[in-house]
């Protein structure tokens, strides 16, 4: 059989092709979209591209090369600045998703961009075979800032990795290592987590995420995981036992519906962990790093409710992949050389970016601003509750991790808002979730809720 080498060559889009594609999508925005939409959806400023538009054709041409892990709407975003995103048709969207609580300092922050540019010319990666300045500097800053801002009072060390799920994997491993040290017989291995939690999609983190739609396709999962109900103090004695190595809990469940653990529950949980010698892990990947108006969500709790480990990611890199685990000495002393590792984690580029971000988020004015913006959101949400008391049931959360609990599926509201230039997302069961950049202004919040009100009016 003759080899058809010419037809089998890898086709990589050229810069000219990309430029042409962008031009065509913009032409579409100014001609086809304007005329077609005017006929049917004159009220919409940002109608989703049609399947046969240049954007739609681009998406479907590329989808056949992508593993089907996400269902995405048709707009293709190509640029961001502050609280805004622009699609390939050059339409601007006000973003209340913050990259799912990632872009705490907004899209394309100029200081972060400058740091990335400078460090990329200096040193990006050496592996963890060698010391570099920034991994030590970031570890120290995380520990010191945690203590200084009222978080885990006995924090001593940090492990830097690449993502939130990797941080939780490390925390689970560290908890089991502590369990083996405390019970050499090997019975202290169980990890406890809670229903409606989300800790990641790798196999260990997934085992701690008791949601059937996530777990069922990959069963059987890792043994030794038990699940309880958030805020059920009475169940803690049977849930957390002498066999428990660690307890993994989100102070505010993000993906699960913006459900807050009560201070009383977290205090009782910490007491039970101390009683049986279990390690307490606070997953603050989504709710930490300033999102609640304190540096860590648990910083408002008494020291007796503080964890032994904090897992973090998301806002730590503002879009650059990085995560971390902050531990106390009881945990640190159980982890020895060779127990855990990472190739990319702690690279100089990510650590320098995160060092800058931690410093900015920890500023008093930033944290106080988050608290003030929560009040603007709640005042605006009160108007929605007054208009639709049967549909808008509850406001949940704290700071800039907030949820509107709806009586029905809010997906039509998400679409209606997007087609009016506002990006919002859902969580849990019938919850609209709001996790914008911490830098959003009060005026932009009011503008966003005004658009949301128009969207709700169109579908409720």
From TrEMBL:
Q: Does the keyword Nuclease apply?
A: no
Keyword entries, A-Z: Amino-acid biosynthesis, Aminotransferase, Pyridoxal phosphate, Transferase
- Principal localization reads mitochondrion
Q: Where in the cell is it found?
A: Mitochondrion
Cofactors demanded by this protein: pyridoxal 5'-phosphate
Q: Pfam families, per this entry?
A: Aminotran_3 (PF00202)
- What is the E.C. number? 2.6.1.11
Q: Which cellular components does GO assign to this protein?
A: mitochondrial matrix
- Looking at its record, which EC class is this enzyme? transferase
Q: Which GO terms describe its molecular function?
A: identical protein binding; N2-acetyl-L-ornithine:2-oxoglutarate 5-aminotransferase activity; pyridoxal phosphate binding
Provide one Gene Ontology biological process annotation. Answer: L-arginine biosynthetic process
The lineage's top-level taxon is Eukaryota
User: Region Disordered: what ranges?
Assistant: 37-56
Protein's pathway? Amino-acid biosynthesis; L-arginine biosynthesis; N(2)-acetyl-L-ornithine from L-glutamate: step 4/4
Query: Known HAMAP family for this protein?
Result: ArgD_aminotrans_3 (MF_01107)
Q: Provide the family line.
A: Belongs to the class-III pyridoxal-phosphate-dependent aminotransferase family.
What protein name is recorded for this chain?
Answer: acetylornithine transaminase
- Source organism (scientific name): Microthyrium microscopicum
